[in-house]
Amino acid sequence: MFGKVIAGLKEFLGLSEKDVFRKNPDAPKIAKEQKGALALCLIDGENIGAYTDSLTTGLPRQVVMRILNQGGCGTNWKDAMEQIEWLLKVGMRVTFDAAVPFMTVRDESERNGRIDKTLNELWKDKKFASETARNKKFLEESERMKMLARNVIQCEAALGDNRFAPFDEKNVKGGILAWDMNWLVLFARLYRDVGFFDENKAWDVIMHAYETAKEKFEDWREVSVSYLIGRGALNGSNPSIKKMYGIAKMAFKDADSPWKNISFK
Fold first, then answer.
1. d(C-alpha 110, C-alpha 96), whole Å
2. Among residues 173, 116, 175, which one has the least CA distance to residue 145?
3. Which of 119, 161, 172, 257 is the most exposed place for a label (fewest CB within 10 A)?
C-alpha cells in the first residue's frame, strides 16, 4: 500500500542522518512555482533521500522500482496512470471524510456498528452487478473506514501530549487533501525517473496537485497538519509515525528546508 515507510533507503544510498534536504548539484533552473510544487512531497521525499529542488529524485532506478514494488504503486505505464487518476479523483480523502463523523466514538464495537449502519443507508439505492459484488464492495469500504477511524484514534492517544500533534477535532475535520497531493507529486517524480512519464506529463501532474492544494491551504503549516493526519490514518500508532513527525518538525527548523525558504503561496 502506498504510504508505507520504506526503511533503510538512506543507508543503502550511503547517506547519514545529517544528509537532509538534499539538493541536486546539477539541478536545472526551475520556476518558483515549480519549487513550491515539489515541496508538497517534502516529508516523504526526505524519508527516501530524494532531492528537494529538481524533478528527478536523484535515486537509482533500482531504488525507485523497489519503492514502487513495495508500495504496490505500479511498475508499468498502465498502472502508473491508474494510480494517478485514482489520486486525482478519489484518493484516500474520500473514504477518510466519510469516516470522520465516527472518530469521536471511542468504543470500537459501537463505532464499527455505526459505520456499517450508515454505509448501508447510503448504499441502499446503489446499483451493483450482483448481491455478491455489492457485499464485496461494502466489506472493502467498511473495513477501510473502520481502519482509518481506528488509526486516527490510536494516533491521538499516542501523540496527544505532543505539542506538534495535529489530532484535534478541527484539524481532523479539515481532511487529508495534502496527503493525496503529496503522493501525486512524489509518484509523478518517481514515474518520470523510471520513464513511465515524460517531463511534461510529470510537471502537469505536479502543478495540478499544487494548484489544488493552494485552493485549500494557506501555508506549509496547514499542509503539514493535513499530511500528518493522513499518515496517521494509514499507519496508526506504528513507531514509524514518529519518524515522519520528526521530519515534519525538522522541515520548519532546518535552514536548508524548502519550507523555510519557499513561501507556500
1. 18
2. 116
3. 161
- Cα–Cα dist 215/98, whole Å: 21
Reading the block at residue 64, the C-alpha cell is 525507485
Q: What angle do CA 197, 199, 201 make, to 5 degrees?
A: 55
pLDDT, one tens digit per residue, over 177-212 is: 999 999 999 999 999 999 999 999 999 999 999 999
Residue indicated by cell numbers 448481491: 131
Q: What does the alpha-carbon distance between residue 122 and residue 115 come to, in Å, rounded to a whole number?
A: 11
**Residue given cell 535515486 in the structure block:** 59
Determine the length of the chain: 265
CA distance 233 to 210: 22
Rounded to an integer, what distance in angstroms lies between the CA atom of residue 197 and that of residue 203? 10
List Cβ neighbours of 239 (8 Å cut-off, separation of 6 or more): none
